[in-house]
Amino acid sequence: MRRPSGPAPRTPPQAAPAPTRSSAPPAAPAAEPERKPEASVLTAPIELTGRIEQKKAETDASPEPASTPGSWRELRRAIGARRRVERSEARRFTARTRRRRRWQLGIAGFVVLVLGGAVVTAFSPIMSLKHIEVVGAHSVKAAEVQHALAGELGTPLPLVTSADVRHALDDFRMIESYSTQLEPPSTLVVRITERTPLAVVKQGSSYEVVDQAGVVLSAGASPQAGLPVVSLPSGQQPERSAGFAAAAAVLAALPDAVRATVTGASATSANNVTLTLKGGKKVIWGGTDEMDLKTADLQALLKGAAGASVYDVSSPRAPITR
């Protein structure tokens, strides 16, 4: 059927029906229909738990790669290579310490070797005592000293002690002091300082030759020529007498030319020394103070006042003669 081409006829508007009064209350407004969420805003929840379980099942079901001998060899090679690298790095970082340790061990070994060789050689028969040389013996006979030390022959040089030498030389009163020297491989050198006779001390009916310390060197029935006689109070020993010590100090301080003219000395105390010269002349010395000045005064008086019989130098700044 053919539609008309013209515009559709307008329908006249109908009037709304008039409301009717009723005793019933007005009806409540109809509830709005529930709105459905738009698809563009909300989406369905994602099922993660199922996916995780499915992935785990697939992983468990997949077969593990079988280990082959080739893979184990490669693993061992890798481990060995790593260890070699670690050892190489450790050696590189400790090279200086190891060099220093090698030097220290080498030096210590050399020192031990040298000391061990020295000890073995020192105590071997090569280093045993075979010769004794005595130096400085005049009044003491060198042969007697060698005979006294003969017991040390054959002893290794390091074992020859000063105590052994002192014990062997104790009987030699003429020896004032000594020193020893070991000369490898087999020689002992003994250097002796002898006591010097200074005066003669009369003890009873004998005359004892003594040194400055009062040590008796020899004794005889008559005084030894060329030595002054020191008179001491009866019963005093020269080694323990203060008077003898003062007189000996004065005699030792005199020049050889003046001492040769002294025939005797006496000292009742340390401050009262008197000398007797040849011809009976007297020297009043006094104490042991200002020895050099008193010696110079006496030498001048002996030259300038040769005819005097008494020379008093006890006050060296005002000497007198009589």
Automatic annotation (TrEMBL):
Chain intervals with Low complexity compositional bias: 17-31
Region (Disordered), start-end ranges: 1-76
Keyword terms: Cell cycle, Cell division, Cell membrane, Membrane, Transmembrane, Transmembrane helix
Compositionally biased region (Basic and acidic residues): 50-59
Main location: membrane
Transmembrane intervals: 105-127
Biased segments, Pro residues type: 1-16
Entries under InterPro entries matching the protein: Cell_div_FtsQ/DivIB_C, FtsQ_DivIB, POTRA, POTRA_FtsQ_type
POTRA domain sequence ranges: 127-195
Domain of life: Bacteria
Subcellular location(s) of the protein: Membrane
Protein name, as recorded: POTRA domain-containing protein
